[in-house]
Design a protein that fits this description.
By secondary structure, the protein is of the alpha/beta class. It has a single domain, classed as Rossmann fold (3-Layer(aba) Sandwich), CATH 3.40.50.720. The chain is built from 7 helices and 8 strands, in the order βαβαβαβαββαααββ. Strand 4 (about 100), helix 4 (about 110-120) and strand 5 (about 125-130) form a beta-alpha-beta unit. The longest helix is centred in the last third of the chain and has 19 residues, at about 170-190. It is globular, with a radius of gyration of 16 Å. The protein starts with 7 loop residues before the first strand and ends in a 27-residue tail after the last strand.
């Protein structure tokens, strides 16, 4: 799906999810990408993070990704932010973009992005991948349930394993990242048909499910009371 070059997207995380998201949005014609990640390229990243080459080891991920994307899409404007998306900086990062994508390795960061994006009226695509499983959920103000409607509250520290802790099938990160990009392109094109529909993928059993998430009457994000004082989480890319 092609979109106008005046559209912009915030991608938080430039790892296993962020790489396919960034490539897909760039090749679809999105005019401006804001890439946010505080990590550097490691040798273990190379087998699944397709924007990085062996010569990039030790470089900031966002800088290596910027250079590779610029070669593929010269018309693309790229803002590389070599830091983690802290709560204090997230609102400023969301300002001026048309869609935001969570491509991090933090099971709880989706709650922060969900709340702040909905509060600021920015549609977002939440998602995650671990081992052989992944999920994607696009959210937008006033259209269906959100991440907090689905999961209610942030997990306690170490309650949910990240892909860095539990491992991830590289191909699964690519599948989930491309689904996130497809959802982001739908949102950029003005479609809200898929908002509030969670897609889950079980790569081990070859199952894909799509379920509409109903808005919760108790959800503070959906009812305009998103918690501006969310717990101080910083993002980490799906490594």
């Amino acid at each position: 799906m092609a979109v106008h070059g005046d559209k912009s997207a915030l991608i938080v995380g430039a790892g296993g999810l962020g790489c396919p998201v960034a490539v897909a949005l760039a090749e679809a014609g999105v005019g401006h990408l804001v890439l946010v990640d505080g990590d550097r390229v490691e040798p273990s990243n190379l087998q699944r993070q397709t924007l990085f080459w062996p010569a990039d080891v030790g470089r900031a991920k966002v800088e290596a990704a910027r250079d590779r994307l610029a070669a593929r899409a010269p018309q693309l404007r790229i803002t590389a932010v070599a830091e983690r998306a802290s709560p204090a900086r997230l609102d400023a990062m969301l300002g001026g973009v048309d869609v935001a994508i969570d491509a991090t390795d933090d099971p709880g960061f989706g709650f922060l992005l969900n709340d702040r994006a909905l509060s600021l009226g920015v549609p977002a695509v939440l998602g995650g991948v671990v081992r052989f499983e992944g999920l994607v959920l696009p959210v937008a103000p006033g259209h269906g349930g959100c991440w907090r409607c689905l999961f209610e509250d942030e997990p306690a520290p170490h309650e949910v394993a990240s892909c860095g802790d539990a491992g991830v099938l590289g191909a699964m990160a690519g599948v989930v990242g491309h689904l996130q990009a497809a959802s982001a392109l739908d949102l950029l094109a003005g479609s809200r048909h898929e908002v509030g529909v969670v897609t889950t993928i079980d790569g081990l059993r070859g199952r894909v499910r799509r379920v509409r998430v109903p808005p919760s009457e108790h959800c503070p994000a959906c009812h305009g009371a998103a918690r501006a004082s969310a717990p101080p989480r910083e993002s980490a890319s799906c490594s």
